[in-house]
Amino acid sequence: MTTKIVSWWLLILFIANGWWCCNSCWKEERTALLQLKANINYKIAGDYLPSWVANETSDCCRWEGIVCSNKTRRVTELSIIVEKINQEEQFSTLTGTNTDDSILENWLFNASLFIPFKNLKALLLPELSLADWVKNEGFEKLRRLRKLETLDLSGNKFNRSIFESISQLSSLKSLNLSGNYINGSGSNTWFSLFASLNY
Ligand SMILES: *[C@@H]1O[C@H](CO)[C@@H](O)[C@H](O)[C@H]1NC(C)=O
Ligand SMILES: *[C@@H]1O[C@H](CO)[C@@H](O)[C@H](O)[C@H]1NC(C)=O
Ligand SMILES: *[C@@H]1O[C@H](CO)[C@@H](O)[C@H](O)[C@H]1NC(C)=O
Ligand SMILES: *[C@@H]1O[C@H](CO)[C@@H](O)[C@H](O)[C@H]1NC(C)=O
Ligand SMILES: *[C@@H]1O[C@H](CO)[C@@H](O)[C@H](O)[C@H]1NC(C)=O
């Protein structure tokens, strides 16, 4: 009788943990990655992040830009790096022009998309033309990522108003905001900030 109850409990625990789904990465995290990809993709021509595929047997821990914990298989590092050259190629083949910074236009940052990555330690989003966040889906939401230590937002289009939001990320230890619009509106001043923030 007791054994039965114990095994039921174990089963419930496993299901609650999502262990039943796969011995690769976590299903909820794979789904979240695909959502993220779709969110970035909406203004981009062609495919990029080709390893990020909706395939149940594909281990998202092996996807490009993803690092998982060997123990928990949860995503600990997430980087989205788009090759500048590819962007230009795709852009010019599509439109015949060659403006090098407009392919991504202004991606609005929907911070909710990152919430499923509960063990995330590093988030690297350089050169993605991030300009702002979606209303009510702002950086405050990233506060729920209590292990987030490294944030790279270099080469985006954030201005000074980003500091207020970032100051709420209490676990943050390193921040790269170089190449944003920090000094005044419109002027792309090379502003390098790499601080050790110890709260
Ligand atoms: C899913 O991935 C496996 C191997 O990773 C591959 O054999 C299979 O063909 C893929 N399925 C689809 C529908 O792409
Ligand atoms: C995880 O395992 C891989 C392969 O065994 C190894 O290369 C890597 O260093 C390990 N990562 C950590 C964080 O221990
Ligand atoms: C932001 O992402 C979340 C999670 O996917 C979604 O529920 C929400 O609708 C998105 N918000 C906007 C404004 O797109
Ligand atoms: C910050 O980002 C810029 C541009 O990506 C890079 O050149 C620089 O090395 C980064 N700084 C640090 C301290 O990582
Ligand atoms: C800074 O960015 C925010 C959000 O995009 C915007 O509302 C604000 O007007 C900008 N401030 C300046 C000085 O450009």
Description:
Helices cover 24% and strands 14% of the residues. The strands form two sheets. A six-stranded mixed β-sheet has the order 1-2-4-6-7-8, with no helix packed on it. Strands 3-5 form a two-stranded parallel sheet. With 199 residues, the chain is of the alpha/beta class. It has one domain (24-196): Ribonuclease Inhibitor (Leucine-rich repeat, LRR (right-handed beta-alpha superhelix)), CATH 3.80.10.10. The model is unreliable at 89-102 and 185-199 (pLDDT under 50). It is built from four helices and eight strands; from the N terminus they run H-H-E-E-H-E-E-E-E-H-E-E. The protein binds 2-acetamido-2-deoxy-beta-D-glucopyranose (NAG) (5 copies).
In short:
The chain is of the alpha/beta class and 199 residues long.
SSE layout and pairings?
Blueprint: H1 2-17, H2 27-41, E1 66-68, E2 75-79, H3 84-95, E3 107-109, E4 122-124, E5 130-133, E6 150-152, H4 162-166, E7 174-176, E8 194-196
Parallel strand pairs: 2-4, 3-5, 4-6, 6-7
Antiparallel strand pairs: 1-2, 7-8
The structure holds 2-acetamido-2-deoxy-beta-D-glucopyranose (5 copies).
One 2-acetamido-2-deoxy-beta-D-glucopyranose (NAG) binds next to loops.
